[in-house]
Amino acid sequence: MSNKLRLCEAASVKDGEPVAAFAEGMPALAVYNVDGEIFVTDNLCTHGNAMLTDGYQDGDIIECPFHGGSFDIKTGAAKAFPCQVAIASYPVEIEDGWVCITKPEGAA
Ligand code: FES
């Protein structure tokens, strides 16, 4: 059985406008377009109860809507205080125009 998860159509994700995505057995996800390349991270900020897709994308940085913390969209690394813990990021494949990730080992 394939662990590949289809999230959304790649063409629906515009540069600078992250999209919330959901997949069975996964935490809430965020899909980004950075200069035409698609990236996927967890959507929940590691500092509090905020969805990063409600925040502000500036190039490859996503700023949380709550306290001004930010993350590197490409790696998930925390970039600005008060965020100190990285968000998970997932390798992306585009398949038939769809954004796909592979469910990590151990995910429910
Ligand atoms: Fe994201 Fe505080 S909840 S910076």
UniProtKB/TrEMBL annotation:
InterPro entries: Rieske_2Fe-2S, Rieske_2Fe-2S_sf. Coiled coil: none annotated. It holds the Pfam family Rieske. GO terms for molecular function: 2 iron, 2 sulfur cluster binding; metal ion binding. It comes from the Bacteria. Keywords: 2Fe-2S, Iron, Iron-sulfur, Metal-binding. Residues 5-101 form the Rieske domain. Gene3D superfamilies: Rieske [2Fe-2S] iron-sulphur domain. This is Rieske (2Fe-2S) domain-containing protein. It comes from Novosphingobium subterraneum.
